[in-house]
Amino acid sequence: MTDDLLIAADGLGKQFPGVRAVDDISFGVRPGQCFGLLGPNGAGKTTTLEMLEGIQPPTSGRVLFRGRPLDRDFREQIGIQFQATSLQDFQTVRESLAMFAALYQRHADLDELIQLCHLQEILTRDTRKLSGGQRQRLLLAIALVNDPTLVFLDEPTTGLDPQARRNFWALIDRVRERGTTILITTHYMEEAERLCDEIAIVDHGRILIQGRPSTLIREHFPTAILRLPSSAWPSDEPLPANAERRDTSIEIYVDEVPTALEQLEQHGASLIDLRVDRPSLEDLFLKLTGHSLRA
Ligand SMILES: Nc1ncnc2c1ncn2[C@@H]1O[C@H](COP(=O)(O)OP(=O)(O)OP(=O)(O)O)[C@@H](O)[C@H]1O
Q: Where is the ABC transporter domain (predicted)?
């Protein structure tokens, strides 16, 4: 563990009765970074996050904040957007923000926060009447109410429609621009690619791989993936060595797309439904685990 880390997981483990939820996880987050914990449902992301937040005690390992064990001051310096936060009934957005602000000694400028999270139009609305996107924006504002150095976001865009998700990403960009360090969990690979400087892919409580999304993809894949429906490949023709058969498609990993297309035609493949994709974190997860993230 190096001294320049804001927060670090050092050999974290969590054993629940009959379930090893987190199994020896180590990583560090530098100041100003957006670090993503990625993995399917049940991978151990929330449990890891809760140990880092000081909410769950680890069964093994330790959490270090600025190189030291968590102390009372830690709570003042962090913000948390939980997966499910219950808001007080019969409260408006403004009242809700004020109530959470009162819990801390440190305060963000509430008007600035309202602007940042685009809450101006809904300040007097009852929190039970918010759309999914509005609710998540309020929960983010609540997480930022004490002007934290580090904010934890646990699957903040789960359940949002694609447009609301994109809006939320733009909001996270602005939080980053203010210099706030972000630790986010998600099972959307696209989200992680879009937002995170560094990610750790978690499955069955362990980190499978960690690094910059673009570097990880470059290390594991050539330039492009060609995808053909299985029926487009002649049944009597063996697959080339750089191809993989998936459920209903064939994937061919290539560096030079034009050359590869010529070779496919020589094999007698039909190119009419061909797709050329840039490899993604989704592809990386499939390659590492043999199963798709949403399976
Ligand atoms: N309090 C608990 N008691 C027993 N088992 C638990 C408890 N909390 C979590 N688990 C189990 O630990 C494993 C990891 O759960 P966790 O919620 O950390 O995963 P996750 O990656 O955050 O999943 P999701 O994306 O669904 O939130 C799962 O098998 C879960 O059922």
A: 7-229
Taking alpha carbons only, the member of 10, 8, 12, 55 closest to residue 33 is 8
Q: Does residue 263 sit in the same domain as residue 189?
A: no
Q: For residue 136, which of 93, 90, 76 has the smallest C-alpha distance?
A: 93
69 and 207 inside one domain? yes
Q: How many angstroms does the Cα of residue 203 sit away from the middle of ligand 1? A: 12
| Average pLDDT taken over every residue of the chain | 91
Name the residue with the closest Cα to ligand 1, atom 25: 41
Q: Whose CA is nearest to atom 31 of ligand 1?
A: 42
257 C-beta neighbours (distance < 10 Å), count: 11
Containing domain of residue 262, as a range? Answer: 222-278
Residue of minimum CA distance from atom 12 in ligand 1:
21
Question: What does the pLDDT look like over 22-34, one tens digit per residue?
Answer: 999 999 999 999 9
Q: Which of 174, 191, 212 is the last residue of a domain?
A: 212
Counted residue by residue, the chain has a size of 295
- Write down the pTM of the prediction: 0.88
196 and 57 in a common domain: yes
Looking at the fold, whether 176 and 261 belong to one and the same domain comes out as no
Number of structural domains found in the chain: 2
**Chain position carrying tokens 């927060």:** 7
As a whole-number percent, the residues of the chain with pLDDT over 70 amount to 98
Q: For residue 74, give the H/E element and its range.
A: helix 74-77
Tens of pLDDT, residues 173-209: 999 999 999 999 998 889 999 999 999 999 999 999 9
Residue 231 Cα, ligand 1 centroid: separation in angstroms?
40
Sign of CA dihedral 167, 171, 177, 182: negative
